[in-house]
Design goal:
Blueprint: E1 3-9, H1 19-39, E2 46-49, H2 63-79, E3 86-88, H3 102-111, H4 115-123, H5 134-140, E4 149-150, E5 155-161, E6 164-170, H6 192-199, E7 207-211, H7 221-231, E8 236-239, E9 246-251, E10 256-261, E11 274-281, E12 286-295, E13 300-303, E14 312-316, H8 323-344, H9 348-351, H10 359-362, E15 367-369, H11 389-394, E16 399-403, H12 409-422, H13 424-427, E17 430-435, H14 445-457, H15 466-474, E18 478-485, H16 490-502, E19 507-513, H17 516-520, E20 531-536, H18 540-550, H19 562-576, H20 582-594, H21 603-614, H22 630-646, E21 652-653, H23 654-668, H24 672-675, H25 677-683, E22 687-690, E23 693-696, H26 699-712, H27 714-720, H28 730-739, H29 744-759, H30 781-789, H31 795-802, H32 825-839, H33 845-871, H34 875-884, H35 893-919, H36 925-933, H37 939-951, H38 957-967, H39 971-987, H40 994-1009, H41 1016-1024, H42 1030-1037
Parallel strand pairs: 1-2, 2-3, 6-7, 7-8, 8-10, 16-19, 16-20, 17-18, 18-19
Antiparallel strand pairs: 1-11, 4-5, 5-6, 9-10, 11-12, 12-13, 12-14, 15-20, 21-23, 22-23
Helix pairs in contact: 1-2, 8-12, 18-19, 18-20, 20-21, 22-26, 26-27, 26-28, 28-32, 29-32, 29-33, 32-33, 32-35, 33-35, 33-36, 33-37, 35-37, 36-37, 37-38, 38-40, 39-40, 40-41
């Protein structure tokens, strides 16, 4: 059984002043090689050295001569090998920095910005551009007289053993190095042309091996995309530079590529030194890697047990690849590497280690519906029932999930991903999760994003080439989970439609952020042939399920009164107006389990308490003067968030993070090493690193700490409040006013902006006096529902409503995730102003009354704008819009009338629900009462105030509704009251006052239909039967 044995060594860094220590390590190295070859009954066939043979390419000490005398000659003598069996490539330390011309360097940086530009440059390469490695090129002539190919950049060699040809491609990754250290990561170039030149002469070899100094991640993005697939043609890729041992297997369609990174042979005696011996069975092509590590206490090398069990790793080279084996390998790697990453993102892993640490243990199925939460007063759930997650998981149809921020969309995609990984043997689809905020540019966008997902999710253990991705897609073996679709981004929509048409056999799951337009009608959503499902806030039962799971494995708590905990959580959520999202509830559970007496004031205060627990503010050590305390930590995080905001993105490149951290500590005169701030926040789970990017684990933390920065730096606050910025930082402004509840500057700024935006439409308000709801209740529920679904407004018509420029063409790049969707500047300002009012508790009652009045007036203006648009709907423009969605039929006049009336009911109910969500706070009770009692308050404003009061269940809300029904003479308002009360009635909102609620609802029905009061008992009787179609009932009672 013939074997090929390769000694892989890297990063020797020889220099004269360290020769005594180098010799100690070399003696141990030479001894270990002899021992290792004897134990494994092999003789080494060649030495592959992957760069940094010397410490400095400037030749001040003639370090190449030192390398020959102390290392290469003794090594080759012991191994009984000729010079041509020493195969090597340059590293960044071989570069002669004195030969770098700064002007020429700047020119190269601006020129080599694409694959095409790099290829053209290499095709016409001039020697003046390689003077920095000229000493290295001269050195190589001592070893290889007759390479199979060679030029000033690369070379190729062929060895033969037992009839097996082994080809070596020596790739130069250091020719663009400038000695900038870690800052060079992502800036180096190999060049597609260089790989082709080195590979072509050895392409027919039985085993093909590439040598290069830098790992693939150190290349520029365009070069990584060009070179990465070409490296898949090699069986082994040997590299160095990282000074540790790293063995990775990269699966490709045609063969396996084994990426093998060697540790540094010498970087000092007190730190890690290592090498590896690769033994390939030339019959089975099984590769065994023996990894070795130097131990200075023993002055000897031994098994690197920290890298592999028994210091040995085995890989199979050159298996025949099929879509089945490729998929199985992918699933295996995703199971081993992606699932732990998913689990690490849970809130429980940060602050409550007694709670479940795995997604499947903690996951509660989301509250799903075929309708938006904002349309809850319409018909009850579809006759086909509520959608069930278990049914969605088993189906093969495409699905679009629509939900508000932090409702759990990404977590749901993670859960579906884990399900498909674990059920692969039955479902046979490989999951790919793609954040549409981070998709690449150019052609085959989604296919490239799938490649990136696999690289990141498997820690670069697996890579798929574009050809293999296409093969899997053509076979229908994929489920693509697209997160964060921007429905105003026409380019994204076109890309997805093209992808679906090209690969129809795969499954798509898409998530979309819900806005006011998608709440009114799902026809605003792009038509991908997906089933559209809304994600609603958690119900009490959902919260109960999460609490039960949270404490299920909590050994520190013997008995948990779930109902008591449930009431406490729901009370907190209701009191401060927080959404019932899984994330918010998880935060509350984590906090309350640490502090039983905790009472949140608003979302900002909750994040603050959460971070106090995570960063251990209450530890005794925090009081010591030598400690970098909670305030120091928060100031640093605010500093990072501010720098991310200035770059208009939610992350920093790793080298940026390290540079900024060093500069921050230098500027304030602190010691970085003692603070451990460069590692602490990763250990605590506050920061995360992914694909060489550093970011806050949760987006809300980045927003919260930018708000912290704005609270202490007036310049940052002014920048956030700029007209072009404030709608890009709505969450930050909300956090800011939640922490500083008397920030009059922000309130007045937004007050002026909203008043100005309203001014163009204020003349429409009188039109609300004759709003004109006139629904023909004799039509069936099914007809009303069908016609409502067909009522749409196109993008151009939406633009006319708000009279602001269309922003939908401003394509969001990965580096600029902040945006204002569409042209809803007015609506966005209105919603933000409401949240700020709710947060600004410490302002005077006079200011609250004035600003709240303006805000509600803004909702009335929005309603008046919608009304004008609704009345402008014609058969022609409606039919044209129907054709856009593949509905080819002519709308009748009576259908147009019905559509208009249904919209006139839907829109004010949606607006009232949005107002309740953004403004609703029990602390505004007295302000609501003053405004309700104001004799100048119009009926629509009073409707919003009173049902704000009712949604919050403030004391006396039933009495206020009763008085309103008695006093109003508007049929339009009465019709809206009927729908709102009917919803209250059906969900049990008025349960403590059920008799009175029934009486109120009956009074409203009688008044809107002008029925005789003698029918009241009949109305109540029918209500008690919970009649589903209230409109049909009204017709029957008439």
């Amino acid at each position: 059984m013939e074997k090929l044995s390769i000694l892989h060594v890297s990063d020797f860094h020889i220099e004269e002043n360290k020769l005594p220590d180098i010799q100690i390590v070399l003696d141990a190295f030479f001894t270990d090689i002899v021992k290792l070859t004897q134990e494994n009954n092999v003789s080494i066939d060649c030495v592959c050295f992957t760069g940094d043979l010397i410490q400095s390419g400037a030749q001040r000490e003639k370090q190449f001569d030192l390398a020959i005398d102390y290392f290469i000659t003794p090594l080759m003598d012991k191994l009984q090998l000729q010079e041509n069996n020493f195969i090597f490539v340059p590293g960044n330390h071989e570069v002669d920095l004195t030969q770098i011309d700064e002007i020429m360097e700047q020119g190269l940086c601006s020129r080599l910005i694409s694959k095409e530009a790099t290829n053209d440059f290499l095709d016409h390469l001039q020697s003046k551009y390689l003077t920095r490695i000229s000493h290295f090129n001269e050195f190589t002539q001592l070893f290889h007289k007759n390479p199979i190919m060679s030029n000033t950049l690369t070379s190729a060699f062929i060895l033969e053993k037992a009839g097996i040809k082994i080809g070596f491609a020596c790739l130069n990754s250091a020719w663009r190095s400038t000695g900038a250290g870690d800052a060079e990561k992502g800036k180096l170039i190999i060049g597609e042309r260089q790989v082709d030149q080195a590979y072509n002469p050895i392409s027919e070899c039985d085993i093909k091996i590439a040598l290069m100094h830098h790992p693939l991640e150190w290349l520029m993005d365009h070069d990584k995309q060009a070179v990465g697939p070409l490296l898949a043609h090699f069986d082994l890729v040997l590299f160095g530079h990282l000074h540790n041992l790293s063995n990775q297997q990269i699966i490709t369609p045609r063969q396996n590529t084994l990426y093998c990174g060697s540790g540094a042979l010498f970087k000092g005696r007190s730190i890690y030194n290592g090498y590896s011996l690769i033994i390939i069975n030339l019959s089975s092509f099984e590769a065994t890697i023996l990894v070795r590590e130097y131990f200075d206490g023993k002055r000897s090398f031994d098994k690197a047990l920290s890298v592999a069990d028994e210091g040995r790793i085995t890989y199979q080279l050159n298996p025949k690849q099929t879509s089945v084996t490729i998929s199985l390998n992918l699933i295996t790697n995703l199971r081993e590497r992606l699932i732990p990453k998913v689990n690490k993102s849970l809130v429980s892993t940060m602050v409550d280690h007694s709670a479940p640490q795995q997604l499947e243990e903690l996951f509660v199925s989301p509250n799903l519906s075929y309708k938006s939460v904002y349309r809850k007063e319409e018909e009850q759930e579809s006759p086909k029932g509520k959608p069930k997650l278990e049914d969605i998981l088993e189906a093969n149809e495409n699905v679009m999930f629509i939900g508000k921020k932090e409702i759990g969309k990404t977590t749901l995609l993670h859960y579906i991903t884990v399900h498909y990984i674990k059920e692969f043997g039955r479902l046979f689809k490989v999951p790919f999760v793609i954040d549409l905020n981070l998709i690449p540019k150019g052609k085959n966008i989604i296919e490239k994003a799938m490649i990136d997902f696999i690289l990141r999710s498997t820690d670069h253990q697996v890579v798929l080439t574009l050809d293999q991705i296409i093969e899997l897609l053509q076979l229908g073996n994929c489920i693509i989970l697209l997160d964060n679709l921007d429905i105003s981004n026409k380019k994204q929509i076109t890309v997805i439609k093209t992808f679906i048409d090209k690969y129809p056999g795969n499954r798509l799951i898409i998530t979309v952020n819900e806005d006011i337009f998608t709440s009114v009608s799902e026809k605003y959503l792009p038509d991908f042939g997906c089933k559209k499902i809304y994600m609603l806030p958690f119900t009490r039962n959902d919260i109960r399920a999460l609490i039960t799971k949270w404490f299920n494995t909590n050994q520190s708590v013997n008995i948990v009164d779930v109902d008591q905990f449930l009431n406490k959580i729901v009370s907190h959520l209701t009191y401060i107006g927080l959404p019932r999202t899984p994330f918010i509830i998880s935060l509350l559970l984590a906090i309350c389990n640490n502090d039983q007496n905790y009472m949140p004031v608003n979302e900002s205060s909750m994040i603050e308490r959460f971070m106090e627990i995570v960063l251990e503010k209450m530890r005794l050590e925090e009081t010591k003067i030598s400690t970098y305390d909670f305030l120091n930590k928060e100031n640093f995080l605010a500093f990072l968030a501010w720098h991310m905001a200035q770059k208009d993105r939610f992350y920093l490149d790793k080298h940026e993070f390290l540079e900024l951290t060093a500069k921050y500590f230098e500027d304030i005169g602190f010691d970085l090493a003692s603070s451990k701030f460069d590692t602490l926040f990763f250990e605590k789970g506050v920061l995360a690193e992914y694909d060489d990017k550093v970011f806050f684990r949760y987006r809300c933390l980045a927003e919260y700490y930018l708000a912290k920065k704005a609270s202490t730096d007036p310049d940052v606050l002014d920048w956030i409040l700029l007209p072009e910025n404030y709608l890009r930082f709505t969450s930050e402004i909300s956090f800011l006013t939640g922490s500083n509840r008397n920030l009059i500057k922000v309130v007045e700024c937004l007050e002026k902006r909203l008043a100005s935006l309203m001014q163009n439409h204020i003349s429409l308000l009188p039109n609300l006096q004759d709003y004109g709801i006139d629904v023909d209740f004799s039509l069936s529920t099914e007809t009303i529902e069908a016609e409502l679904e067909e009522c749409i407004l196109d993008d151009e018509e939406k633009d006319k409503i708000f009279d602001y420029p269309d922003l939908s063409e401003q394509v969001n790049s990965p580096d600029a995730p902040r945006k204002v969707s569409g042209s809803n500047t007015f609506i966005s300002t209105l919603l933000l102003f409401g949240r700020v009012i709710r947060n600004s508790e410490q302002l005077s009652a006079k200011i609250k009354e004035r600003t709240l009045s303006l805000c509600i007036n803004g909702y009335c203006v929005a309603l008046a704008i919608f009304k004008q648009h609704i009345e402008n709907i014609t058969k022609e423009n409606l039919n044209a819009n129907l054709e856009q969605f593949g509905i080819n039929r002519q709308t009748k006049d009576d259908e147009i009338k019905l559509i208009k009336n249904i919209l006139k009911i839907t829109v004010p109910l949606v607006l009232q629900n949005v107002a309740s969500e953004t403004i609703g706070s029990p602390k505004l009770k007295s302000i609501f009462e003053r405004l309700i009692s104001n004799k100048d308050c119009d009926d629509f404003s009073k409707f919003i105030y009173i049902f704000l009061y009712g949604d919050l269940k403030l004391p006396g809300y039933i009495d206020k509704m009763e008085k309103f029904i008695r006093c109003t003479t508007s049929k339009d308002i009465l019709s809206l009251i009927v729908f709102k009360l009917w919803f209250y009635y059906l969900i049990g909102h008025t349960t403590p006052y059920q008799d009175k609620a029934e009486s109120l609802l009956a009074d409203a029905i009688i008044k809107v239909k002008k029925l005789h009061t003698r029918l009241k008992s009949e109305v109540i009787k029918t209500l008690r039967k919970k009649a589903i179609d209230i409109r049909g009932f009204l017709t029957a009672s008439g």
